[in-house]
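Figure 6 in text form: structure in, sequence out.
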């Protein structure tokens, strides 16, 4: 029988109690708990999907996001490898494209490096030396922890 259980912690409890034989989509601390639990095994599952975050104000031509330097700064301010390790324990694939890697004609765009000094320089050049209000960030509810990590890199105590 296949059963849909949206809550990650509930799925883990079901595995531990023997109520489920397999389950998918564990991240962060719960994935670590699986690694530490005798009798459970954590394996990568590469789904042909991508995840992205949307700053809703980016479509406003008067928004700071209209400036290419701001968009580049945002990309340089996020340490993707650290988020990748924290969220999926390195068991997912990083990509710089919204096109799934398994699709025909996929191009492996290079990842942006993590470069906070360059991000700050670009923001200053764009007229935002102290940063700016990035507006609302939107994502699928299952990826809110990733969105929070990106916001933390970009906030007042973050890198850019």
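Output sequence:
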């Amino acid at each position: 029988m296949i059963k849909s259980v949206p809550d990650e912690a509930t799925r883990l409890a079901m595995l531990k109690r023997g109520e489920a034989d397999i389950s998918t989509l564990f991240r962060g601390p719960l994935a670590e708990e699986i690694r530490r639990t005798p009798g459970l095994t954590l394996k990568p599952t590469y789904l042909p999907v991508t995840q992205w975050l949307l700053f809703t104000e980016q479509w406003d031509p008067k928004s700071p996001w209209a400036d290419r330097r701001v968009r580049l700064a945002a990309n340089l301010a996020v340490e993707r490898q650290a988020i990748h390790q924290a969220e999926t324990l390195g068991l997912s694939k990083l990509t710089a494209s919204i096109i799934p890697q398994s699709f025909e004609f996929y191009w492996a765009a290079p990842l942006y490096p993590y470069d906070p000094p360059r991000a700050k320089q670009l923001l200053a050049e764009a007229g935002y030396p102290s940063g700016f209000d990035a507006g609302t960030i939107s994502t699928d509810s299952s990826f809110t922890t990733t969105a929070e990590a990106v916001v933390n890199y970009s906030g007042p105590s973050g890198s850019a």
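Caption detail: Residues 8 and 25 are 7 Å apart (CA to CA).
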